[in-house]
Write a structure and sequence with these properties.
The chain is α/β, with parallel strands linked by helices and 220 residues long. Helices cover 28% and strands 28% of the residues. It has helices at 30-40, 62-74, 90-93, 98-102, 107-115, 165-174, 188-197, and strands spanning 4-7, 13-17, 22-23, 51-56, 78-83, 121-125, 128-133, 146-151, 175-183, 200-205, 212-217. α1 (30-40) crosses α2 and α6 crosses α7. The longest helix has 13 residues, at 62-74. The relative contact order is 0.16.
């Protein structure tokens, strides 16, 4: 499938798939969407406590990178696991301008995240470990492992099977009690799938260009 690098409205780049008319991040602003959905409405809830994070769709590494930057501010211990069935290659990843747009001093860390080995825990810094798993989302078997899930799969329009009740049952199992899942999406069928899986679900204001997003909690 053809892939092209495009610039989004906030000046940051993303990967676009013309055949699907789908991008890895919002065309309205890749960085601002990532901060709004995953940091403001997910990561920030944990107030500096050590947490385990699961990212569904490691992709360009943007969400991992900004989580590292946020954790660095508070010396917060993060055990980060990123799932990606079709990894972005290093050359393509390094065309993303995230370090330049956010913190150029951390370019080496961004590169390290893409160069480090798959299927093993890598020490990125004293407080941040990264495990990249080449795995289909349907094959997740973790139980009560994660505090927070970034659900950043391609959209329902192109891959509805990734937004099914079956997938969210696996997400529910993977979270610890009171764990949280956040996603940019807010389709009624997705909310229903989350509710059927056992989550408590709330709509929140979306990132620029999107009216709403969802946050699901494993409230027990």
């Amino acid at each position: 499938m053809k892939r092209e690098i495009i610039q989004t409205n906030d000046g940051s780049t993303t990967i676009h798939l013309p055949e699907w008319n789908e991008s890895y991040h919002s065309k309205h602003g890749a960085i601002q969407e990532a901060y709004h959905v995953f940091i403001k409405n997910g990561f920030s809830l944990f107030g500096g406590k050590p947490i385990a994070v699961l990212e569904i769709g490691f992709g360009t590494g943007l969400n991992c990178f900004i989580t590292y930057l946020e954790s660095k501010k508070n010396k917060q211990q993060i055990d980060y696991v990123g799932l990606e069935a079709y990894p972005v290659d290093l050359e393509e990843a390094m065309q993303m301008n995230y370090p330049e747009e956010i913190d150029a001093d951390e370019t080496v860390i961004f590169k390290q995240m893409h160069e480090c080995l798959w299927e093993q825990k890598n020490t990125i810094s004293e407080n941040f470990t990264l495990t990249k798993r080449k795995q289909f989302f349907q094959d997740i078997e973790n139980v009560a492992t994660f505090d927070l899930i970034y659900f950043d799969a391609f959209g329902f329009r192109v891959q509805p099977e990734l937004w099914s009740e079956e997938i969210f049952v696996a997400m529910f199992k993977a979270l610890k009690p009171n764990g949280v899942l956040v996603t940019y999406a807010c389709r009624t069928s997705i909310k229903k799938a989350m509710l059927s899986a056992g989550f408590s679900v709330e709509k929140l204001p979306g990132a620029p260009g999107k009216r709403e997003m969802l946050r699901a909690t494993k409230a027990l």
